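If you are new to this repository, start here. Below is one unmodified record pulled from the training split, so you can see the exact layout before writing a loader.
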Amino acid sequence: MADTDLAGAYFDAASTEPLHPAARAALLGALDGAWADPARLYGAARAARMQLDQARARVAAVLGARADEVAFTTSGTQAVHLALLGGARARRRTGRHLVVSAVEHSSVLHAASLHERDGGEVTVVGVDRGGRVDPAEFAAALRPDTALACLQSANHEVGTVQPVGEVAQACRAAGVPLLVDAAQTAGRADVPEGWSFLAASAHKWGGPPGVGVLVIRKGTRWRSPLPEDEREGRRVPGFENVPGAVAAAAALEAYRAEMATEGPRLSALVERVRERVPRDIPDVQVVGDPVRRLPHLVTFSCLYVEGEALLTELDRLGFAVSSGSSCTADTLRPSHVLEAMGVITHGNVRVSLPRGVRSADVDRLLAVLPDAVARLRRDAGVSPA
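And here is the target side for that same chain:
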């Protein structure tokens, strides 16, 4: 990577993209010039308000929204929670039924569980073995009492792109607002039209952590699930992080512009991984849709290997990757995404390439991976079939 000291060994961009140079420059400038309270009337405050409004307009332009539809949050998770719980609350007279896919991010599923514990009802729509929702099945789950539907733009663990456009048409026909969690695609690709709510997270596109984006289309009913606050159009409580918003907007513009050329390059590198890993390592399953996928992400599962052990071994060799199947001490459960897909849920590795990653470093990973897997299998006393 040309602008970091990570030597190309960082392959966990789906978790967080390294800070974009445009974000760093904007953040440093805003820390000096946009630190004042944007709600006040004196000069420094007006300057901060101007920079906040400009950041809002820049983000809106990239996301295909109006500036007054955009609010900055403290994270993508907060944006999801506000959209889901606020959208459902505003439509209580219609009903208390939600529709979500089985592979949504945990922020969506946790908010849906809270809604359910509060007396609501949730229908979970399954996916195929590629991790993709069937639009017809999703449409069939909509009911007259459905308050809100939720569908991610692309999956965070396996990279499968969801049929948002088709689902949005079905929701529009049923009069149901659609929440799209666009955390993995904002800045990488445009989200199809038809959604009512959109949530995104700045650190996924090289912006600073601690900045999320909530977009609520004009005319969409929404009522805050939190105590009322004067900030961010009464949508997000708390003091605005103006420098963070300015940096997030700068990164989003720069990142989106780069993806026209960087996206196809990353996709070719991912295709190399998809081809080489099952060819060079026995008993490996590459998961996710092979065609309708994010350009930078590939996930594969290795039989007879614990995912955590493989991640640790690759870290020792200088590669930062992640796993969607890790059974943590807190949950003792494998990935809900892989379970819903009906694929192998252990020995799982997610490789997600950041902007600027070097082709040679991907090849270096592919060179050491077969021996690493073989060594762990031998240590476990297991041989592939």
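Two things worth knowing about this chain: Residues 46 and 94 are 42 Å apart (CA to CA). The chain has a mean pLDDT of 93.
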